[in-house]
Amino acid sequence: MRARTTKGIEIDFESSRFDSLRPRLKGALILPGEPAYDDSRAVWNAMIDRRPLAVVRCLGVADVVAAVLFAREHDLLLSIKGGGHNIAGLAVAEGALMLDLGLMRGVWVDAERRIARAQGGCLLGDVDRETQLHGLAAVLGFVSATGIAGLTLGGGFGYLTRRYGWTSDNVVAMEVVTAEGQVVRASSEENSDLFWGLRGGGGNFGVVTGIDYALYPVGPEIVGGVVAWPQSEAPRVLELYRRLAAEAPEELTLVTLMRPAPPAPWLPKEMHGQPMVAILACHTGPPEEGERSVAAIKDFGKPVGDILVRRPYAQMQALLDATQPKGRRYYWKSEYLAGIEPELCEQAVAQAAQIRSPHSAVIFFQIGGALNRVEEGHSPVGNRDARFVLNIAGSWEQAADDDANIAWARDAWDAMKGFSTGGNYVNFLTADEGPERIAAALGHGVGRLAEVKRRWDPENLFRTNRNIPPA
Q1: Is residue 398 within 8 Å of residue 406, measured between CB atoms?
Q2: Which DSSP helix (H) or strand (E) runs through 407?
Q3: DSSP letter string over 165-181?
Q4: CA 84/CA 91 separation, integer angstroms
Q5: Contact by Cβ (8 Å): 161, 369
Q6: Are strands 183-187 and 216-217 parallel, antiparallel or unpaired?
Q7: Rounded Cα gap, residues 294 and 222, in angstroms
Q8: CB-based burial, 194-225: b 16+ in 10 Å, e otherwise
Q9: How far, in Å, CA of 190 to CA of 194, rounded?
Q10: Helix, strand, coil tally for the chain in percent (to 5)
Q11: DSSP secondary structure string, 215-279?
Q12: Is the overall model pTM greater than 0.90, yes or no?
């Protein structure tokens, strides 16, 4: 077996050396060639095809501690898989020992204190399912199959971000297994430097086995959904989007996108595969106010599809899942924007016309609001001047189409990146983006993160991430 050390050096590693690890685990240890191996190493983005040395399917924190200590003892590269949804495939590394937290998905809700405690392997949908029983919600992302840990450690944004800030702004505490195999709690009162670093600095400081989220009254019924028009209406729809976004209350989040129409039942068959423009809206206040807020969208022009209605909040959280299935090939380029300018809209329309796959899209996410009112140094996420996210989302089926679709995404990015604030969202960075893009995502926090890294992981055991070397 070929393993990689923490310094990236390839070594021979006899499988018999795992004999000392097996009795220390409650969960399974999976080696290459065993039936569950390929499924365990697979992640959401099919472009990522890496073979770890072994996979530990952790059943609890004790398994995580045992695996971390084993990796230290044998100088093995270590990777951490929560939901496995990161586009760069950070969950899996060639020749590494992979910790799979996917069986650790418990959620406990304290409705009186409005806090949810979620294990590190939870998906967003796991948290929404439990919190909505109490009419509460955490600030999470847009796709329910995303892992909470990766989302949160990189900042995180979704339908509630305009009201309450980044996902990481709404974390109360985290449970972490450190590089020394210690289980610690990080909060504003305990290990506050670690707590600061975790809220945007990624998986650099340990294995996050639990997250406590602040909860807010949301739902269970909200107003949300999509209205779509033919692509010929794109200039007018984008102007509508610009106007409504400037006026929208923070309870309303607006997303606009251009893509070939999917074969969805709410779209007429003659539209399937044809270029379309759409506005996705979610109002998380009282439904009556929501209906008034989205009326201008529903009344605009002659839509080819309209599913902007009252619906359960948990259903809204999963509305985009079908557009992001595991097993497709994904390549994105993204930037933060201070606003949506008319010239940018013109470029977006032009680049959407060049899309090479029926699954790709040009997307604007609205995020401005609460995050802009927090000082820049509050967390490593930074980029507190961002009000929108531009995502050029390439998505396709076959490896033979990689070059054409990657070229489209890069060309579209080249045409639009001049409108950027200069920052970007670290969770949207692809595998080929280097230190300068990480620095743009983390801004002024990089130096402080290196100091936190020096204290908590001086040997850089946790390096299969957007790595911050120890100071």
Answers
A1: no
A2: helix 402-416
A3: --GGGGEEEEEEE-TTS
A4: 6
A5: yes
A6: unpaired
A7: 12
A8: bbbbbbbbbbbbbbbbbbbbbbbebbebbbbb
A9: 9
A10: 35, 25, 40
A11: -EE--SEEEEEEEEEEGGGHHHHHHHHHHHHHH--TTEEEEEEEEEPP--TTS-GGGTTSEEEEE
A12: yes
Q: How many CB atoms lie within 10 A of CB 51?
A: 16
Task: Give pLDDT tens digits for 281-338.
Answer: 999 999 999 999 999 999 999 999 999 999 999 999 999 999 999 999 999 999 999 9
Only one residue has tokens 């099919």, namely: 46
Alpha carbon separation from 126 to 102, 134, 138, 281 (Å, rounded): 12, 14, 11, 23
The predicted model gives 384-397 an average pLDDT of 97
Question: Contact, 390 vs 341, CB < 8 A?
Answer: no
- The contacts of residue 432 (CB under 8 Å, 6+ apart) are none
Cβ(290)–Cβ(219) under 8 Å?
no
Place of tokens 């961002």: 386
Residue 127 CA, chain-centre distance (Å), reads 15
Compute the CA torsion angle 372, 375, 379, 380 (nearest 10 deg).
80
Q: Cβ-count burial of 413 within 10 angstroms (0-12 exposed, 13-18 middle, 19+ buried)? A: middle
Residue found by looking up tokens 């949908």 in the block? 125
